[in-house]
Amino acid sequence: MNRTEARAKAEALVGRMTVEEAAGQLRYDAPAIDRLGVPAYNWWNEALHGVARAGMATSFPQAIGLAAAFDPELVRRLGDVAATEGRAKYNAAAAHGDRDIYKGLTFWSPNVNIFRDPRWGRGHETYGEDPLLTAELGVSYVKGLQGDGETMKSAACAKHFAVHSGPEGLRHRFNAVATKKDMAETYLPAFKALVDAGVEAVMGAYNRTNGEPCCGSASLQKILREEWGFQGHFVSDCWAIRDFHTGHMVTDTPEESAALALEQGCDVNCGNTYLYMMKAYEKGLVTEAQIRRSAVRLFTCRYMLGLMEGSEFDAVPYEKVECAEHLAAAREASEKACVLLKNDGMLPLDASKLRTLGVIGPNADSRAALIGNYHGTSSRYITVLEGLQDALGDGVRVMYSQGCHLFKDKDENLSMADDRISEALTVAEHSDAVVLVLGLDETLEGEEGDTGNAAASGDKLDLLLPASQRRLMDAVLGVGKPTVICLMAGSAIDLGNGAEQANAILLTWYPGARGGRTVADILLGRVSPSGKLPVTFYHDDQLAKMPEFTDYSMAGRTYRYIEDKPLYPFGYGLTYGDCRISARREGNHIEAEVVNEGSIDTDEVVQVYVQNEGSVHAPRNPRLCAFQRVHVPAGQAVRVALDIPAERLKVVDDEGRLVDEGTPVFYVGFGQPDARTAELTGRESIRI
């Protein structure tokens, strides 16, 4: 059902409601209206990397890992997987009269905020720091979730609008100040791309942006509905409207907060402030027309989803949940997501030359480190330890030690500090090679209130591993056995001297419930790593040179504005192949040839960057303007053609306008055209 037809039906239905009935439908837990045949509906559901929080579902790598794949088509397919499983679960729950939270078809995903500062705890929910990559992947996930038929398969939501990336502890009262240039160049492009792609919903952020609370902002609504032509519905972040009078202090009462949000176009309230809507109406703070306007938008969505009159998706069976096809897609995603940061030749491991493999570390046998946050439940979990045990079978002895607690100084309360390190040393001493599995999980980086990291409300205070893990790392590396560090995290980590001492470093992100199998396959050479960093990995001491966390200026942040050499650059990642690239340009059309001179099949990501030479408004460093993932069999060549849209060659001036300025110069390679990438890879991008 198209939007025009759905809206007409919605207007007719809402027209039959009383004002009180219509107001009740603006709650996230909308009640049934039995006399009109309207069933209850809960708008709150999650599908950041698979259907979340409602039982069994296929588990993909965390969003930041999906970004590392640099593969929009894969992300689109994963969106379709989530929508299919969402339909199957909705159909099954509704058949039992279950219309509870996390059971609906309105998914509050994807998160297209820009990961501008490496301290932000929720950054791993995003697609990284680059506006173009974020937009491309966000659009793909929206298209996968919503489908391309007359009936939406599910409804996607672009969040959090806008200018939102920490600090978590201040979000209920914080005012994010951004210039017109930073708004247009960094914070808004992904949202506009999703609106242009037809995203059904947009969620407002907790914070204020330039003085206005995002869920009650006239300025942001003008951009969204008037300038961009958004036709869908707007939802508040959870309890964000309450913040109007408890945190931002822009209103005095819940009634005033409800009125401000509704007036500025917030259609559905995640939280309970809209319970005061009728009081606001009785006091003359809101009008009947405003209430009905929002109710119509919400029922337009429900009709487009086929929830009011049925659809072809009512037949999606429960057997689709965690089916073989979906598990294969998740496995493919985890294979493409892992980023090889270092390899002195240790990898891939040759199982025929191993008698004993030591697997050490607090994340080696951790389910929490597989799943990230906003996750579903898998019917099976495969940790890194289990993946290696399964892959090596009886041919290689796998010895294990936890080594240390994830962040505490001891694992057993009655023990002395570092109570597991002697065991770790023993395992390392008795092993031919060591896999040291370190990092974080959702208890250390994540959303305020969802982590055990109370001191920083889910944000990170620095870029180092917890002290317990640093001591373990130093001890194990001191044994001198060939050691690969598997880093399970959702953001930049500085391993310090460990990065120099380790023979190899594999960044696995949070790879999904069965991700340990993929990690084993990569370590053993069954799959070539091919992910690229969607964020800059900084040295820890570079934080001191950045603007304050609360400063939303882009100066010194992300690869576009960094001034010093990073630890690992955006776009960087090694493979087991040995690929070379050549390229030529004709106008804005680029043709490249990738030749794999090695003996191992691999994927590579062709990356094109542009710099407007002579421009005073272009970012400090060349910016990504096109990319394409390609599979390159050993000894073969693959050709790639890329057309660069003219709009990507423009720059943003201080007034936030796109202008033609300077001479566009292109760089083509497998990473950025920066000194650090050349230093790490031994190759420079081609300037054309």
Describe the protein in words.
This protein is 29% helix and 16% strand. It is α/β, with parallel strands linked by helices and 688 residues long. It has 3 domains: 318 residues, Glycoside hydrolase, family 3, N-terminal domain (TIM Barrel, Alpha-Beta Barrel); 206 residues, Glycoside hydrolase family 3 C-terminal domain (Rossmann fold), CATH 3.40.50.1700; 109 residues, Sandwich (Immunoglobulin-like), CATH 2.60.40.10. The strands form 7 sheets. Strands 9-14-13-12-10-11 form a 6-stranded mixed beta sheet, with helices on both faces. The protein has a 4-stranded antiparallel beta sheet with strand order 18-17-22-23, with no helix packed on it. The protein starts with a helix and ends with a strand.
